[in-house]
Each structure stands twice: as C-alpha cells, then as structure tokens.
Write a structure and sequence with these properties.
Structural class: alpha+beta
Strand order of the largest sheet: 1-11-7-15-5-4-2
Oligomer: single chain
Order of helices and strands: HHEHEEEHHEEEEEEEEEEE
Radius of gyration: 17 Å
Distance between the termini: 38 Å
Strand content: 25-35%
Helix content: 25-40%
Shape: globular
Number of strands: 15
Length: 236
C-alpha cells in the first residue's frame, strides 16, 4: 500500500492549481485511508499529545472544540505536512508574484519554520477539530503572526452522510466592489481541501488585486465530525 506522502505526490497538481486560481480552494483525491483517518481521529482523547485545547463557544468562535498538537507530531501528521509544503509552494510563489508581494518561503518546510521561530512564532499549529450535534465554526483566518504561509489544508476524518450530517466547509470571499461570494464543500473521508489562508489574487481592470477570504464550518446537524488542519506557519 502506498504512503500518504506518495498519494499527495501523485495528485493532479496542475488541476489543483487551476481550481485554486478559480475558487481559492481545491479538493484532492483520497490521501488517507479510512483506517488512517480513524487512527488520527482516535488521538483526540489522548490529551498529552496536545499543547492546548480551545473551547470555541468560550471565545465566541462558534461551538465545538479543537486541539493543537504538541511536538513531536504523530507520524501521519508530520508526513502530510512535509509532503504538502513543496507542492503548495509554487502556487504560493505564483500568487505572490501576481500581487507584487514578497515570497519569503524557502524550498523546505524546515527552513520556513526556522524563520518563524526566529521571528518569535514557535507554537505548533497542526489542529485536530471535533464537532458534535449543533457545533459550528465562525468565519475566520488562521494567521497567528506576521509570517504567514498563504495556503493550508484540512483533511476530513469522518464520512459525511454516515458519521454526520451538515458540517460543510465554508469559504467566503469578499470580492472587490461587489457582494461576497460563498463556496461550500462537503469533505469526503480521507480527502484534503486546500484553501487560501487570507486572500487570493483576482484579475481586475488594473491588473491583479487581493480578494480577502475567510473560512468556517456550517452547523453539524447530526453525528460526530473530526478534521485535521494543517497550517504551514507556527504561531506567536
């Protein structure tokens, strides 16, 4: 059986880049098996693996709970983070060039995270999220500090329709001089959704401009929904 990193490598990256350009998000094929999804979701109650737990209702982020993994990360989480970064990097650099922005991201994730640490962003950011009946996540951005990688990934760990209903992933884009546009994605188990961390380039009459984007999760109407969030910069 192939490894998750090999599944990431074999994805249609040209097609995913086109989807990102068009919508600010793109759904991969399966990158985790059902057994691997259960393995990661099953870690949620192993509290010692996490550096902190966030109650979303307490902070008015929505309703539900998520936990930030502490180092060292589980092997599957580390493997996915390492596999995705070099594939996302060309998209990140291309977007920066269109927007006339610096592209400070080096060729390896290790170098980039070292830059984050030197800037005081040392806290780990891979997230395991759990939603139950009635839980939801408000629209937000995962920025965490001055150094930001512009793309991130969320992986569905439960099967929609079987394990839960509702809980669609929401992306809302604030278009220049127009009403906001929403995109809804139902995450199949084991698939990853790549999406923009803060904005995306859109063509305008004056060239390219940045269209701000936020993301969230609709209300879970039944069942239990776990997702793995992969952010590629550390937190201050």
């Amino acid at each position: 059986m192939s490894k998750p990193s090999e599944r990431v490598e074999k994805a249609d990256w040209a097609g995913l880049a086109e989807e990102m350009d068009a919508h600010g998000c793109a759904l991969t094929g399966p990158i985790l098996t059902a057994a691997e999804c259960r393995e990661i979701a099953g870690l949620y109650d192993e509290v010692a693996r996490f550096r902190s737990t966030i109650d979303m209702e307490r902070y008015r982020f929505g309703r539900g709970q998520y936990r930030y993994f502490d180092r060292p990360f589980p092997d599957l989480v580390q493997e996915l983070r390492q596999a995705f970064y070099p594939r996302l990097l060309p998209i990140a650099r291309d977007w920066a060039a269109r927007l006339g922005r610096p592209a400070p991201w080096p060729d390896t994730l290790a170098e980039w995270l070292e830059m984050c640490h030197r800037a005081g962003q040392r806290k780990s950011t891979p997230i395991l999220l759990r939603y139950r009946d009635g839980d939801w996540n408000a629209l937000h951005r995962d920025l965490y500090g001055d150094l930001v990688f512009p793309l991130q990934v969320v992986v569905g760990l439960n099967e929609p329709g079987a394990d839960y209903d509702g809980g669609e992933f929401l992306l809302v884009e604030q278009r220049p001089r127009a009403q906001s546009r929403g995109t809804v994605t139902l995450l199949p188990q084991g698939h990853g959704l790549i999406f923009t961390t803060r904005d995306r380039p859109v063509r305008s009459s004056r060239g390219w401009s940045a269209s701000p984007v936020r993301h969230g999760v609709s209300t879970v109407r039944r069942g239990l929904r776990h997702t793995l969030g992969l952010v590629f910069h550390d937190a201050a």
